[in-house]
Design a protein that fits this description.
Oligomer: single chain
Number of helices: 6
Shape: elongated
Strand order of the largest sheet: 2-3-4-5
Distance between the termini: 20 Å
Structural class: alpha+beta
Strand content: 15-25%
Radius of gyration: 23 Å
Number of strands: 6
Length: about 200
């Protein structure tokens, strides 16, 4: 005679077993690129500001050395303020205008809007301090930039990378919260044994 076993839906499990299932899902359950939407937004923002050939990197969210950075080339993008207004909400618009876009425009103004900068990632870690910048003149202008101008560009890029990391961390924290995992597991219609193992 076959052995009968009782199986449970996720919402029928006792609280301690639910916690076990949640922890397992939190550790192994993200079998998809959960960061895609944040990445696409960030690349679109950077492209609006004049960056192109953008590649992003991040690690997180629990160790020293975690963060986000990017590689790209940059040249002035005329009309970036209006384009950014169309794309971003008020809070992010103010951040990107004041901390990234305006410093880049001020730097470009000093160089006749002809400056091209290549940003690369170096090192093992991924955070805002692992980006390095190479400045090039465009056309016939000679590229005279000083340490203050280089620092201004570096800080604008760092601020952009910090925003990216904050958005990624916020998304990760939401997706790994008990509430979000409970909703996800209930929607999956999985069956479990009484000890929390999947059938």
């Amino acid at each position: 005679m076959p052995e009968q076993i009782t199986v449970y839906c996720y919402d029928e499990l006792p609280p301690d077993i639910k916690e076990k299932v949640r922890d397992e899902y939190r550790t192994n359950g993200f079998g998809y690129d959960w960061w895609d939407f944040v990445h696409e937004d960030f690349v679109a923002i950077l492209e609006t500001l004049g960056f192109y050939n953008v590649k992003t990197y991040f690690s997180g969210f629990w160790s020293q050395g975690d963060g986000a950075c990017f590689e790209a080339q940059y040249r002035y993008s005329a009309g970036w303020k209006n384009k950014l207004k169309e794309y971003l909400g008020e809070k992010d618009l103010e951040y990107f205008t004041n901390r990234v876009g305006q410093p880049l425009q001020d730097l470009q103004r000093r160089h006749g809007y002809q400056l091209i900068v290549k940003t690369v990632h170096r090192g093992y870690y991924c955070h805002e301090n692992t980006m390095y910048h190479e400045f090039y003149p465009d056309g016939y202008l000679h590229c005279n930039y000083d340490a203050e101008q280089e620092q201004s560009f570096r800080e604008a890029c760092r601020d952009a990378a910090r925003w990216y990391y904050r958005e990624l961390e916020e998304k990760y924290n939401y997706l790994s919260s008990d509430k979000a995992i409970d909703e996800e597991l209930e929607d999956m219609d999985r069956l479990y044994l009484e000890d929390g193992r999947r059938v």
